[in-house]
């Protein structure tokens, strides 16, 4: 018997040889490496690296999976929220003599089964100095009830590493696997890249060689400053700058511009939740750029750019980096951030950002123990009629946002009372994966149109009501849409009319045996927390949110409301 390394090397060769034989039999056509523009590390150590491309004509995704240290196989697949139960999987496994590849699925108990319809098609395998490359293909939709439907928005990818040989697929014990999940937007839009101007300059907003804390989750804040007298420019694209070796730790990054009403902001470089962080940094909330793992460079349409610099614009910027360090690496240094590409030759239009959805208010609440509770926010026809130019606006990108209970977010455009177009939909939304996404097609919105944003929540793990608000255990339902030309309308959101909510509290009080104080002096959150959540109280609240009049917020940039009132 040779050394473990020799055995591993022999086995590696055997697997590669077996796969090559299998591939010749398949006669599959594997795309060249240059065809895989999207890339993401699957595991925190970077042992598994996934690259992919999207073919809209074929309605299929081609995957290239690099396995750096192959042992006895790999599971790769997709599931609704990233669980190994009820998952759709491609499996490579070995019994120590032969290797096998197949399309499988797991049941609610995590037991694996070979799929009767093989929809993960193996196209190729090749050995390289860095590891084994597996190439396979999967159609978006397969009409197989055991398969995951690949659709727009977030996809939860799962992986598992087989560390010992297994005699059959059914013998694989999912609970004993070394595995995990990675979230990506698989179906990237096929957006043509605009020509960039010759006078384009770049600016890097990066962390100053910080030591990543040795804990699982850190939000790091760093203040940067534009040069004094920096005139108005247009940001026309941006891309991530990730320190080599930290690709699996830098989860997402955002650059915010601070509020112009303050002349100065303190310098700060440290955790965002530290008691040492100056309070004034909370006034740096205007998003200039947002990137999440797996995202590419972001391009503005050639007619528009995001204005920064010049009078009425703050010189101060806040970089926020989310480090995800589950293996608790110590002493790892990082200088990641975002590279802005900007031009002094202003484009025809300033791009704007508008908030759609629900107002941040406790009057919108989710009872505890709900698996699928829906709240809807409206940007009404009255508001767009008053605030949008006759020629309308063009939405080209969108960033969806909820807190921890959010599971789905969808915004639709309605015209003359009929739903016309989906602006952005993420039916597998995760609050841990929020990026600005370019839309597949620009959405034109005209005066009198309505934009309706619906959020679905899960509060099965909570024992009291979840109210709307800014806290992480409170909830939000927001779609930040990026559009041009910029208008004065910065916020177009709604909430239930508070008077009708008070009638609900009175009704609950009347039908409840225990005396609950629903008096005006008790805050709305306290009233929600004291409700006994029986079926009646839940159903009436759902009905209230579905049918009661709404209070409409139609705000200018200065936070002054357009005069629309209750709808």
From TrEMBL:
GO CC, alphabetical: chromaffin granule lumen; chromaffin granule membrane; extracellular space
Protein localization: Cytoplasmic vesicle, Secretory vesicle, Chromaffin granule lumen; Cytoplasmic vesicle, Secretory vesicle, Chromaffin granule membrane
GO MF annotation list: copper ion binding; dopamine beta-monooxygenase activity; L-ascorbic acid binding
Coiled-coil segments on the chain, per record: none
Topological category with respect to the lipid bilayer: Single-pass type II membrane protein
CDD domains, A to Z: DOMON_DOH
EC number(s) on file: 1.14.17.1
Positions of transmembrane segments: none
SMART domains from the UniProt entry: DoH
Cofactor: Cu(2+)
Catalytic activity: dopamine + 2 L-ascorbate + O2 = (R)-noradrenaline + 2 monodehydro-L-ascorbate radical + H2O
Subunit text: Homotetramer; composed of two disulfide-linked dimers.
Job description of the protein: Catalyzes the hydroxylation of dopamine to noradrenaline (also known as norepinephrine), and is thus vital for regulation of these neurotransmitters.
Family designation: Belongs to the copper type II ascorbate-dependent monooxygenase family.
Name used for this protein in its record: Dopamine beta-hydroxylase
Lineage, opening ranks: Eukaryota, Metazoa, Chordata, Craniata, Vertebrata
Gene: DBH
């Amino acid at each position: 018997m040779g050394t473990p390394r020799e055995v591993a090397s022999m086995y590696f060769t055997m697997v590669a040889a077996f796969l090559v034989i299998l591939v010749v039999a398949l006669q599959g056509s594997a795309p060249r490496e240059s065809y895989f523009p999207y890339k993401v590390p699957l595991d925190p150590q970077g042992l598994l690296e996934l690259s992919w491309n999207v073919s809209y004509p074929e309605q299929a995704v081609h995957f290239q999976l690099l396995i750096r240290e192959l042992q006895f196989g790999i599971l790769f697949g997709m599931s609704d929220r990233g669980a190994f139960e009820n998952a759709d999987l491609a499996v490579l496994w070995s019994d120590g003599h032969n290797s096998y590849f197949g399309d499988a699925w797991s049941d609610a108990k995590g037991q694996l089964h070979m799929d009767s319809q093989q929809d993960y098609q193996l196209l190729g395998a090749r050995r390289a100095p860095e590891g084994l490359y597996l190439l396979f293909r999967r159609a978006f939709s397969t009409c197989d009830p055991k398969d995951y439907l690949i659709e727009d928005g977030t996809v939860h990818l799962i992986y598992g590493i087989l560390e010992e040989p297994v005699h059959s697929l059914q013998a694989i014990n999912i609970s004993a696997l070394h595995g995990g999940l990675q979230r990506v937007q698989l179906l990237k839009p096929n957006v043509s890249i605009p020509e960039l101007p010759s006078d384009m300059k770049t600016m890097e907003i990066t962390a100053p060689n910080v030591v990543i804390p040795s804990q699982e989750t850190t939000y790091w804040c760093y203040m940067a400053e534009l040069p004094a007298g920096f005139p108005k420019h247009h940001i026309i694209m941006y891309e991530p700058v990730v320190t080599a070796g930290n690709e699996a730790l830098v989860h997402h990054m955002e650059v915010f511009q601070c509020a112009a009403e303050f002349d100065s902001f303190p310098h700060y470089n440290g955790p965002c939740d530290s008691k040492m962080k100056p309070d004034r940094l909370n006034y740096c909330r205007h998003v200039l750029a947002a990137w999440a793992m797996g995202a590419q460079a972001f391009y503005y349409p050639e007619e528009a750019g995001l204005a920064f610099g010049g009078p009425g614009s703050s010189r101060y910027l806040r970089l926020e980096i989310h480090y995800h360090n589950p293996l608790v690496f110590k002493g790892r240094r990082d200088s990641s951030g975002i590279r802005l590409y900007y031009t002094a030759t202003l484009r025809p239009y300033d791009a704007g950002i508008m908030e759609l959805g629900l107002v941040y208010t406790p009057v919108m609440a989710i009872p505890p123990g709900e698996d699928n509770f829906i709240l809807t926010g409206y940007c009404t026809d009255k508001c767009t009629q008053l605030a949008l130019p006759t020629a309308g606006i063009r939405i080209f990108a969108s960033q969806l946002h909820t807190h921890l209970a959010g599971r789905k977010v969808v915004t639709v455009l309605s015209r003359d009372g009929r739903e016309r177009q989906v602006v952005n939909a993420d039916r597998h939304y995760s609050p841990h994966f929020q990026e600005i996404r370019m839309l597949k097609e620009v959405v034109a919105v005209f005066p009198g149109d309505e934009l309706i944003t619906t959020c679905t929540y899960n509060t099965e793990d909570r024992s009291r009501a979840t109210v709307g608000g800014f806290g992480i255990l409170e909830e939000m339902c927001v779609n930040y849409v990026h559009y041009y030309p910029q208008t004065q309308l910065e916020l177009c959101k709604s909430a239930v009319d508070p008077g009708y909510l008070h009638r609900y509290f009175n009704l609950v009080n009347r039908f409840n045996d225990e005396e609950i104080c629903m008096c005006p002096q008790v805050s709305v959150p306290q009233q929600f927390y004291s409700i006994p959540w029986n079926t009646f109280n839940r159903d009436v609240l759902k009905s209230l949110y579905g049918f009661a009049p709404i209070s409409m917020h139609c705000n200018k940039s200065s936070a002054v409301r357009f005069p629309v009132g209750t709808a």
